[in-house]
Each structure stands twice: as structure tokens, then as C-alpha cells.
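Researcher: Sequence of Glycosyl transferase family 1 follows. Predict its structure.
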Amino acid sequence: MLIDVSRLAGRLMDGKHPTGVDRVSLAYLRHYRERARALVRHRGRWLRLGDEASRKVFAALLGESGMPQRTVRLNVAQAHLLRGSSCRGWTLLNTGHSGLDDPGYAYAVRRFRLRPVYFLHDLIPLTHPEYSRPQEDDKHHQRLATMLDTGSCLIFNSGATRQDLVDYVARYGSSLPPHVVAPLGIEPLPTPGAEALLPEPYFVMLGTIEPRKNHLLILHVWRRFAELGETPPKLVLIGQRGWECEQVIDLLERSPALRGSVIELPRCNDTELATWLRHARALLFPSFVEGFGLPLIEAVSQGTPVLAADLPVFRESVGEIPEYLDPLDGPAWLDAVRAYSVAADPRRRTQLERLRGYQRWDWGAHFAIVDPFLERCRAI
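Model: Prediction complete. C-alpha cells:
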């Protein structure tokens, strides 16, 4: 099996923190590393790294080696000099949508007679183009064309994502290759600290600051606390600033009403993340659309209540545990935050009772579905 690690390698070289898509790709790399070789697309060439080079690059991407950027650079350079190894006839695993918006990807797949297995995370650029970068919808059309035209098999993260593609296929007259739905797992977070990182009650939002995450609604809720003369709980925003979020940034940097009550953390380590989640009054997840929603799974796995937008994919993954709210209903979010600010509030206490019955879906359960599916794909 070949694993296309081009996206992971590129983001490592650029010093970027892993996104949710990257975390899925890293889980696949961790699971299949002993049975796979690395494919890197670099400067127009497809390079299959040898056994030893793949081992080193996998370790670098998984954060297991010193000087990971240097390791990747050296091994890719050597592959260029050696002109790489033939990848003809291999099963190819692409878990990050990487390169699929280039029509040349399909050409190379056919040229090398590869058997691609693609992981589809979402159709958000097509179903909700207003929350994507300009022209991202055209790129996603091309990604889906590559998947549908060349894919031996597809893996979906949720039934909701599968249904979106079924609707797409019906609209554009394509056909769906063999596929499977395998809900995402999470890597267990470290044991959280026994003490909260803040003395006051606080709420957490977790994820990149971008329009579809709906940070704007929550910041206006916090402004409303100030307008009403109430002392708000703290709000901790964990995530990097993304794109087209100028209004959110303006509020964070210039609103006197938010000063002192909102804490922005572009990144934190896993122990800190576990501690922030474990002692929070709740995770706030008011997104307009999600392909899956890993922060929700991480929160409930820590026993943390969740106030979430009422999305089908959330109900699919954690059922009726969270309290669901309309992502446009500011007064409802204000009332919920006010209630959950009190540790013993009946609404919060009731959700804590529901949380006791949650059984975490881990990566082992995910790959218990995917492993036999890939065996069937190889036989096709």
C-alpha cells in the first residue's frame, strides 16, 4: 500500500499545526505504517520512497524523530536523485483530499495503474460555498470528479457525508464506487490536570477561527452579557486564526466589552487541552456545518457537557447527549450559557447524567471497519 503523505509533508515543512483532516491522516499513517510506503508528489513528480526512507518520513510526520523537517527534506531529495521507485500497480491511500483538484492526479493514477482508495471528509465547499474560500467549490467539483472517475473505493467519515455524495451523484449522473462509512475515532488525550487553569467558570470553543464555526455569534453573546450589566464567565478560544474572519478579529482586538472576558489560545499541548476541556462548564459548538466534528467527540470523552448547533452529523455521532440549539438564535445561546455557568444548574446536571452513558468510539473501532474493507478493495 502507498500512502500519499504530500499534504502532511507540506504542512510540516510550512510549520503548520495539524487540522482535523491532518489528524485523520496521521491516524491512518500510525495504523498502516508497517504495511505501507510513502508517496510524495513533489515538483511534478510522483516519488515512491523505499522501505527505510518511508520509515524515517513516517516517524518524522508522526513527531517521533528529531529535526523532522530535515528528515523529510533529505529523504525526498534522495528520492529525486534516485528517481524514486516504481509505484505501478500499488493500492494508493489518499486521506486528505490532497492534489485531487488537479486533473493531472487522475492522469497519473491511470498512468501508474494505481488502485486509489479515497477518504471523503465533507462536501462543504459545494453544499455551503459561502463558508469556503473563493473558487473552492470549483476545486471540490474536481476533487469529486477525481474520486468518482478513478477511485477503486471510498471511505466516508459519516452517514451524513455519504448522503451528501449520494445526492451529488444523483444530480450529476455519476456512479458511486464501493464504499464504507467508518466514524472517526480520537486519540485519547493525556490525563487532565486536577486543577482548572482558571479560577472562574469558563466555556471553551475549539477549532480554527473561520466563518462556518460561528465564533461571531458567541462573541455577540458575550457582548450582550456586558450590555445587560452581568459579569460573564470566561470564554477560551482554542484554535488558530483562519481566513475571512475579519469581523471576529475586530471584536477580539477592539471591543472593550470583551476585554478581560475572552482568552485566545492559538495552540496548546494535549495535556493543556485535556485540562481546559475537563474543567469547562461546557464546550460551545455553534457551527453552521461540519463534516464530522472531532471537538465534540473530544469534549464528551472528557465528560464535558456540550452546547451544539443542531446538525444531523452531531446527532449521528453522539446522539442526544449535547443540548442542541439553533446556530442563529442568540438569545437561546445566552440563556444556555447563563444556565451552564452554574455547575449545579438542572440543565447542566441533566446532561452530565446523559454523559455517563457515553461509550467513546476510538480508532480501533474505526479500523475494525476499514481493515476488512481495504482487503475487499484489493480484490476488486
